[in-house]
Amino acid sequence: MPELVNFQTINQPEILVVGKLTRSDFQGRMPDGRHLSDLWGDCFNTGVFATLEALVPHIHNPAYVGYMDGCDFAAGVMNYLCGMMMKPGVPVPDGFAAQKIAPAKIAVAWVKGPQDKVPELCAAAHGITLDAIRQNGLKPIDGWVMEVYTNERFNAPDANGDIIVDYYLPCE
Questions:
Q1: Domain ranges of the chain
Q2: What fold is seen in the domain 3-170?
């Protein structure tokens, strides 16, 4: 069962999320019928992350991210950008997309769950983060959300096989 293990707010400066962009339905299916997990595999296998990691002076945060915006609830689709957070002025490589995120107050929730249940963990993270925002007297701001996969929390399961996904949601 996914659970909140840390909650905080940060004042995030302007950043760009740079990576590969697709459309997806809310179940993670892309227009070509493949799943978003396939996009992640493509990004690892085709050197997308290696290309981004080579932009060392421009990296804002070395974690990998799944950035979501452009939700069309009637059509049940959203934009999904698989990449990394970069500083303004980063040279965007050919074939990559970039999404500017203005300076904002961000709610950051660490949501813990079983490593073998990543889709369920990520699906639960949104609701858990919304609950934490409201319990802390804050108000969520619609527009975008971001799953952040840090090496030290997401790629290092604890003794019980649990990992942590960081979930970012703007708030006021």
A1: 3-170
A2: Multidrug-efflux Transporter 1 Regulator Bmrr; Chain A (3.20.80)
pLDDT tens per residue, the chain (172 residues)? 899 999 999 999 999 999 999 999 988 999 999 999 999 999 999 999 999 999 999 999 999 999 999 988 788 899 999 999 999 999 999 999 999 999 999 999 999 999 999 989 998 999 999 999 999 999 999 999 999 999 999 999 999 999 999 999 999 9
Comparing CA positions, the residue from 52, 69, 35, 38 lying closest to residue 168 is 69
Q: How far is CA 28 from the centre of its chain?
A: 14
3-state DSSP assignment of residue 57: helix
